[in-house]
Amino acid sequence: MVLADLGRKITEALRSLSNATIINEEVLNSLLKEVCKALLEADVNVQLVKKLRENVKSAIDFEDMAAGLNKRRMIQHAVFQELCKLVDPGVKTWQPQKGKPNVIMFVGLQGSGKTTTCTKLAYYYQRKGWKTCLTCADTFRAGAFDQLKQNATKARIPFYGSYTEMDPVIIAQDGVEKFKSEKFEIIIVDTSGRHKQEESLFEEMLQVSNAVDPDNIIFVMDATIGQACESQARAFKEKVDVASVIVTKLDGHAKGGGALSAVAATKSPIIFIGTGEHIDDFEPFKTRPFISKLLGMGDIEGLIDKVNELKLEENEELIGKLKHGQFTLRDMYEQFQNIMKMGPFNQIMGMIPGFGSDFMTKGNEQESMARLKKLMTIMDSMNDQELDSLQGSKLFSRERGRVARVARGSGTSVREVDELLSQYNKFAAMVKKMGGIKGLFKGGDMSRNMNPSQFQRLNQQMARMMDPRVLQQMGGMQGLQSMMRQFQGAGGMPGGGGHN
Hints:
Layout: H1 4-19, H2 25-41, H3 46-59, H4 71-87, E1 102-108, H5 114-127, E2 132-137, H6 144-154, E3 159-160, H7 168-181, E4 186-191, H8 199-212, E5 216-222, H9 228-239, E6 244-248, H10 257-266, E7 270-274, E8 282-284, H11 287-294, H12 300-309, H13 316-323, H14 329-341, H15 345-351, H16 362-380, H17 384-388, H18 392-398, H19 400-410, H20 414-436, H21 446-449, H22 452-465, H23 468-473, H24 476-489
Parallel strand pairs: 1-4, 1-5, 2-3, 2-4, 5-6, 6-7
Antiparallel strand pairs: 7-8
Helix pairs in contact: 1-2, 2-3, 3-4, 4-11, 5-6, 7-8, 9-10, 14-16, 16-19, 18-19, 19-20, 20-22, 22-24
Keywords: Cytoplasm, Endoplasmic reticulum, GTP-binding, Hydrolase, Nucleotide-binding, Nucleus, Ribonucleoprotein, RNA-binding, Signal recognition particle
Subcellular location: Cytoplasm; Endoplasmic reticulum; Nucleus speckle
Protein name: Signal recognition particle 54 kDa protein
């Protein structure tokens, strides 16, 4: 996860508040010292760290504080607010408009991952139902057009470029005009990477900008260059009107704080962050959920967005079955498909409160996905009767020949098919229990729709089904209960579950 080290250190510093018996000036100073040290180590600008410290100090006045106030909560809240301010210039982000051409021009240093990010953004909007395309106006770097062509073809995104024309201004102009006439809504223009010392390239960037008259200029910032981002960001902002920032290569880079705090130099909001090499390792940037996630508090808002994208509420048949406590093998298969659609596994885990950033390593993620795919392969070898039967596993235990046939068809062993069936039995038992609790699907707070002993039983059953290491990571039974409550009441949480 993004800046895992920084998140861990700040969380530890905030945790020290819980261990202090009396909260006073001394405890606050020691906490701020740890937080500031962690930020400086992550390459956040010294002036910004100093300002954060002063602002927290001025927000917490022990002498003025009423006796009944929760000082711990107030300090945590003040630190959270200041961390948000660090990466949020308070400027409204640009939004494209449906039904009209929105021209987006990319600028940035060479090697910052600009061309890849162009494709990621086009793919992001394409999945949301926009008509998107790419134009390559980078004539400076050999192979730039080939790279864009390759990326765009893989993602099935229309593109424009030229092997013969050497003037980027003409290519950009022609590409934008072509796509405007074809009624494209998101027209992305990739330009040459440049450095603030290269005056001629900066001039060329200005010419391209004047020729295509972009609605949004995005500065792509590479998290690995740390504090050097600031002067570069300022130089770009002085030449063209940078309206948005995308930070790339944030996957686990310790020095990423430099890039995040350089946003202050552009006075432009971060709109997306790149968290890996794959086309979907890319997420919209929202300040409060980002800081929550950084501090291991999860990002309920992001998780709800992901679940909403799946449009599960339209699957009335499944909801109906769940209400009656029915769950077939096919339903389980569809749920696995939904998990795959939601995007990288570790991104999803990071959104769940209690799953710290260091919980899901890349290895774990690949193993989980591989296991999920294997289970789906086994189910691909089952016939309709087996997938749709409400007695799914009984069918297999009565007629063992079916197990051998599925194992042969899926290239797996009988033991692996049995393991899948046992997993299904657990799921189905859980659904029966939840289906039997009448108030569960009314929406609102789960604990309010059930009496306390039912809620307790449901929690215990979930705990038994979970890997003990996962349960421990969530803070035991207590953590599981609070997470279930958070999931149920998530819609009404302030700022996506930020600091309460």
